[in-house]
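In the design runs reported in the main text, the only information available to the sequence generator was the tokenized backbone. The following block is the verbatim input for one such run; it is reproduced so that readers can re-run the procedure and compare outputs position by position.
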């Protein structure tokens, strides 16, 4: 934030929106790098490391309270070398030091606060601290003064603590296991989800309540596998709760980060690209499983929001929108009752207010309301008021559109416009699947545009994938999640378009992923590449948090590529990764829901749907396939115009040929194919048989 008359610090030359937000702090911030480490060594000072991201509410609070404060800045500048890191640009740095924080304090979050020596070995960790202590939370100034005193009087104990912490982290990551994944782990995960399920509002656990899209994806596969209707009921209750609550933006679309309450009513208002990508994917699968048009509508609306507000002119997807505007969380999104009446008039205003829960008392701060229709469906509401559903729906739609235009005149939250390869991979997957399931070629084209952008702007001259693009600059060797998530997107795009080049790109990235990240000694994939900066440890992550881990998505997409191509080497990587993480997964499988997507795929019968011959009926056949939930089937195309490519990359489908020049579909299971299908009616019947459980 530019302060008139204040000289910028070193962050002014950064591309990161988060670092630029701190470029006019009086703190003498340094970016992460050798210059800062060397300065700490030469000046004999500890390093104060602060990690956050541009749309982080408590990062903004700590900046206002401490990093904009002259007293705090003066103390830091005299006694520390201060480093700022954008966790979204450097997830490797964030991951290593978040592990330290969780090890030392049993909790984590952002802003992440670390104090370490010039060799980057940490001896203090925490999250948000106010300038001065409050009940239950120490103050930053007290902490800094205590550390400086100890640095001057008991430095050896600090350095020893740092060495011990670092060694403990390294040893933990060197452990080796050799187990095996068994089908019962899926039952155990289901039982844990059922135990934590909120039967009243949906979701899992209590407030604050986070979306769990990969958990929902697991439960849909469990329903498909076993026929257990309770698994699908949990999914439906959660999808309904999230879309009806204030977690969902009913005017501009898209989901906020999480709900502060158990009802999904009052969100933490920041919108993240990865949440919206994963939730779109879950709603699309929910639509495939249930046929509920509300789920298709939500997916369509979220993709509309991303297309309208979060897509750059070159086709890449932006990262996030802030929770705050004009210094207040949620101000952009909430409404007073009198505002609704003013803009809509009495009759339309009363209808809108009743359906979306707007009252003069409000449900948020300062008598404002977070729009929601918890427990109210359009049909029930219309029946209650003696009106036709379509009539009420049309009137509410007009009101939403009018209020959206009014809201557009407000000061918008800050938008983080950097393009992250990993998060774009997730959004490519969502758009590609949306194009297929919703039969919308515009969404397919959005996915294509983002892929084109990445392969134009985020591939180094030597072919190395990069992690971040902003303002004309691509930087940072891509991490495991960049490769795994982009492979996911490319597989979805291939199955939507049947254009071989997307499958080839996915295979190329898979080989790069093995070369750069695979642990030859133990197995599993490292977080950052063998050619990247060496940190105090080189972790491997499998736990699935707000985003799935790189290893989890890697085993899933490599399993799919193995089924598609018959590449046994990729399959061996999957098997080895299962082996080393089997014990972790068995202990608490619910925490590894995305990993279980790969397990479920591996344990399911091998299913392939092969399409042949490029005639008009092919698109109709492909659209029919897209309607059905078949999570463990892969779709392939024996393209007569790509004979050499088919022979090289998917040679096993060469034997599937068109019958009498017609578009022909082969449904194959466990390496045996059913009778070839040339009529759409026969295809529908065949696919319907695959909607029953596979056991």
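Verbatim output:
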């Amino acid at each position: 934030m530019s302060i008139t008359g204040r000289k910028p610090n070193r962050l002014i030359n950064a591309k990161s929106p988060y670092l630029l937000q701190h470029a006019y702090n009086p703190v003498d911030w340094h970016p992460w790098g050798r210059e800062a480490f060397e300065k700490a060594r030469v000046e004999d000072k500890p390093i104060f490391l602060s990690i956050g991201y541009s749309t982080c509410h408590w990062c903004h609070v700590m900046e206002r309270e401490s990093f904009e404060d002259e007293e705090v800045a003066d103390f830091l500048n005299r006694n520390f070398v201060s480093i700022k890191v954008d966790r979204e640009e450097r997830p490797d740095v964030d991951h290593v030091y978040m592990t330290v924080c969780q090890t030392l304090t049993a909790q984590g979050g952002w802003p992440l606060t670390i104090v370490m020596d010039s060799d980057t070995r940490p001896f203090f960790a925490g999250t948000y601290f106010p300038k001065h202590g409050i009940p239950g939370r120490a103050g930053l100034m007290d902490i800094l003064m205590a550390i400086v005193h100890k640095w001057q009087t008991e430095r050896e104990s600090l350095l020893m603590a740092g060495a011990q912490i670092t060694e403990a982290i390294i040893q933990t990551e060197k452990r080796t296991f050799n187990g095996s994944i068994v089908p019962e782990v899926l039952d155990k995960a289901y039982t844990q989800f059922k135990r934590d399920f909120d039967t009243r509002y949906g979701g899992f656990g209590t407030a604050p309540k986070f979306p769990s899209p990969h958990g929902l994806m697991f439960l849909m596969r469990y329903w498909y596998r076993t026929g257990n209707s309770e698994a699908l009921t949990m999914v439906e209750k959660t999808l309904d709760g999230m879309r009806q609550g204030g977690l969902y933006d009913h005017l501009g679309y898209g989901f906020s980060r999480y709900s502060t309450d158990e009802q999904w009513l009052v969100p933490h208002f920041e919108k993240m690209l990865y949440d919206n990508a994963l939730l779109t994917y879950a709603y699309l699968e929910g639509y495939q499983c249930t046929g509920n048009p509300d789920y298709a509508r939500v997916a369509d609306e979220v993709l509309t929001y991303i297309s309208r507000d979060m897509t750059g002119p070159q086709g890449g997807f932006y990262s996030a929108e802030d929770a705050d505007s004009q210094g207040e969380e949620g101000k952009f999104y909430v409404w007073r009752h009198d505002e609704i009446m003013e803009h809509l008039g009495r009759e339309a205003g009363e209808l809108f207010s009743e359906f979306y829960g707007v009252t003069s008392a409000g449900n948020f701060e300062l008598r404002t309301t977070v729009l929601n229709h918890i427990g109210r469906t359009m049909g029930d509401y219309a029946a209650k008021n003696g009106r036709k559903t379509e009539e009420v729906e049309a009137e509410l739609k007009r009101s939403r559109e009018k209020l959206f235009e009014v809201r557009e005149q407000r000061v918008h939250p800050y938008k983080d416009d950097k393009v992250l390869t990993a998060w774009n991979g997730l959004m490519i997957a969502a758009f590609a699947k949306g194009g297929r399931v919703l039969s919308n070629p515009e969404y397919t084209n959005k996915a294509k545009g983002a892929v084109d952008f990445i392969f134009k702007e985020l591939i180094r001259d030597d072919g190395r994938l990069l992690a971040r693009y902003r303002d004309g600059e691509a930087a940072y060797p891509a991490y495991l999640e960049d490769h795994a998530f982009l492979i996911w997107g490319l597989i979805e795009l291939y199955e939507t378009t049947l254009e071989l080049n997307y499958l080839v790109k996915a295979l190329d990235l898979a080989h790069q992923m093995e070369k750069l990240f695979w642990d030859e000694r133990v197995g599993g994939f490292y977080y950052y590449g063998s050619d990247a900066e060496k940190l105090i440890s080189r972790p491997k992550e499998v736990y699935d948090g707000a985003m799935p881990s790189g290893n989890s998505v890697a085993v899933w997409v490599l399993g799919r590529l193995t089924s598609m191509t018959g590449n046994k080497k990729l399959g061996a990587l999957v098997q080895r990764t299962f082996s080393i993480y089997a014990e972790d997964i068995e202990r608490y499988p619910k925490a590894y829901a995305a990993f279980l997507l790969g397990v479920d795929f591996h344990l399911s019968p091998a299913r392939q749907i092969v399409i042949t011959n490029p005639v008009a009926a092919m698109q109709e056949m492909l659209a029919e396939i897209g309607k059905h939930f078949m999570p463990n089937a892969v779709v392939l195309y024996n393209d007569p115009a790509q004979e050499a490519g088919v022979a090289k990359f998917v040679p096993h489908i060469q034997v599937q040929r068109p019958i009498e020049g017609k578009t022909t579909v082969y449904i194959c299971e466990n390496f045996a194919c059913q009778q070839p299908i040339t009529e759409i009616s026969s295809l529908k019947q065949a696919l319907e048989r695959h909607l029953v459980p596979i056991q």
